[in-house]
Amino acid sequence: LDHKRVGFIYLVLGVWAGFLGLSLSMLIRLNFVEPYYNIIAPEVYNYVVTIHGVTMLFFFLMPILIGGFGNYLLPILLGIADLNLPRLNALSAWLVLPASICLSISMFLGAGVGWTFYPPLSGGDYSTGQGVDFLMFSLHLAGISSIFSSLNFICTIYSSVN
């Protein structure tokens, strides 16, 4: 895959995550329309806030800004045909998909730890089920994807300058 297609994959996955985050944000806001009128249950509210924060930061902003625009614009700005490690580049893009699937699964398993993941709420005493585990695994996959992209960008910039 060339850098433009990989950038497009990042953009599509980021826009999909943006729609998910936007719908969760609207659900949060609809919950506050009237006092004592809950669209979602109070115990589910923390899950929705957690998934909204993680989705918007790690699956909307980062894939679009770093993955999408970085993959598309960096070779054009450097005047080269493609990035140095195209297979690693494709792998980094395709790791975002299982990461976002694990994120979606964690919402249904109950991962209401907040987007900061502070230890009292993310520990075994306060988090029931496997939701936090899926949430952490999705962030690890997204982090590995980001590391692969960063390594590819660094290698490409270094080799084009020298």
Automatic annotation (TrEMBL):
Cofactor(s), names only, from the UniProt record: heme
Pathway: Energy metabolism; oxidative phosphorylation
Superkingdom of origin organism: Eukaryota
Enzyme nomenclature, EC number: 7.1.1.9
Main location: mitochondrion
Keyword list, A-Z: Copper, Electron transport, Heme, Iron, Membrane, Metal-binding, Mitochondrion, Mitochondrion inner membrane, Respiratory chain, Transmembrane, Transmembrane helix, Transport
Signal peptide: none
Recorded GO CC terms: mitochondrial inner membrane
Membrane topology: Multi-pass membrane protein
Reaction equation(s) it catalyzes: 4 Fe(II)-[cytochrome c] + O2 + 8 H(+)(in) = 4 Fe(III)-[cytochrome c] + 2 H2O + 4 H(+)(out)
Class of enzymatic activity (EC top level): translocase
Cell compartments where the protein resides: Mitochondrion inner membrane
Transmembrane segments: 7-28, 48-81, 93-117, 137-161
GO annotation terms (biological process): electron transport coupled proton transport; oxidative phosphorylation; respiratory electron transport chain
UniProt GO molecular function: cytochrome-c oxidase activity; heme binding; metal ion binding
Domain annotation Cytochrome oxidase subunit I profile: ranges: 1-162
A UniProt-annotated Pfam family: COX1
InterPro entries in the record: Cyt_c_oxase-like_su1_dom, Cyt_c_oxase-like_su1_sf, Cyt_C_Oxase_1
PANTHER family: CYTOCHROME C OXIDASE SUBUNIT 1 (PTHR10422:SF18)
Function noted in UniProt: Component of the cytochrome c oxidase, the last enzyme in the mitochondrial electron transport chain which drives oxidative phosphorylation. The respiratory chain contains 3 multisubunit complexes succinate dehydrogenase (complex II, CII), ubiquinol-cytochrome c oxidoreductase (cytochrome b-c1 complex, complex III, CIII) and cytochrome c oxidase (complex IV, CIV), that cooperate to transfer electrons derived from NADH and succinate to molecular oxygen, creating an electrochemical gradient over the inner membrane that drives transmembrane transport and the ATP synthase.
UniProt family annotation: Belongs to the heme-copper respiratory oxidase family.
Protein name (Swiss-Prot/TrEMBL): Cytochrome c oxidase subunit 1
Source organism: Notocotylus sp. D MAG-2019
